[in-house]
Amino acid sequence: MELILKYFPDLTEKQLEQFKRLEELYKEWNAKINVISRKDIDALYERHVLHSLGIAKVMGFKPRTQVLDVGTGGGFPGIPLAILFPETDFFLIDVIAKKIRVVNEVAQALELTNVRAEQLRAQKVKEDFDFIVSRAVTNMPDFVNWVKKKIKKENRHKLRNGILYLKGGDLKEELKLFPKVEQFNLSDFFAEAFFDTKKVVYLPLKYKPKK
């Protein structure tokens, strides 16, 4: 928790309590349903919670913003972002039912009324969103194909509607098809060595009416 407060010192009492409870909730559920690797569960706040909140260093979601989290796993980045932005609506999806069960149980325990979760492929989502977030579920070209027709027309943020993607390493080859892409190094925001190669990849997407 000290790690979260180090970089997000202005949390409300409710947010503090919600972030505090993440550890017990995920350890409890991980013992039943393995959604986080054994080595990572002990570094939950650094490798999952703070990593997810890296998106918040790039984008502050306005009230009533709608965000889709694709391949959320046990709820990352969606759950930490939903705590930080209680007036933003988050839809968390994953193809694995047991992971969505954990997401729903954690969201319910934390009373996160701005979170809904469903076992669903991105290609099957019928709604439109302001932003689509994810943590490295696939390469960027495939990901764009999954979500390119799910972006809202109206832009309300300093960055145009699009993808905010958490990924690490050298992405030059993977991103060469996308001249408008921007990369934000998480090492510019977080001092821990874990973030040395981690990035938020931002890609604006044009609105495309569904046929």
Which labels suit this protein?
single chain, 211 residues, alpha/beta, Rossmann fold, seven-stranded mixed sheet, 7 strands, 35% helix, globular
CATH superfamily, by name, is Vaccinia Virus protein VP39
The fraction of residues assigned to DSSP E strands is 15-25%
The chain-level structural class is alpha/beta
Within the CATH hierarchy, at the fold level, what is the topology? Rossmann fold
CATH architect. name: 3-Layer(aba) Sandwich
Count of separate structural domains = 1
How many β-strand stretches?
7
CATH top level is Alpha Beta
Secondary-structure element order, as H and E? HHHHEHEHEEHEEE
Spatial strand arrangement across the major sheet: 3-2-1-4-5-7-6
The main sheet comes to: 7 strands, mixed
Overall mean pLDDT: 95
Unreliable spans are none
Number of helices: 7
Using the alpha-carbon principal axes, give the shape: globular
* Computed Rg: 16 Å
Helical percent range?
25-40%
Cα(first) to Cα(last) distance is 47 Å
Q: What report would you give on this structure?
A:
35% of the residues lie in helices and 18% in strands. The chain has helices at 2-7, 13-32, 38-41, 44-58, 78-84, 97-109, 140-147; strands at 66-70, 89-94, 115-119, 131-135, 162-168, 182-185, 198-204. It has one domain: Vaccinia Virus protein VP39 (Rossmann fold). The chain has a 7-stranded mixed beta sheet, with helices on one face.
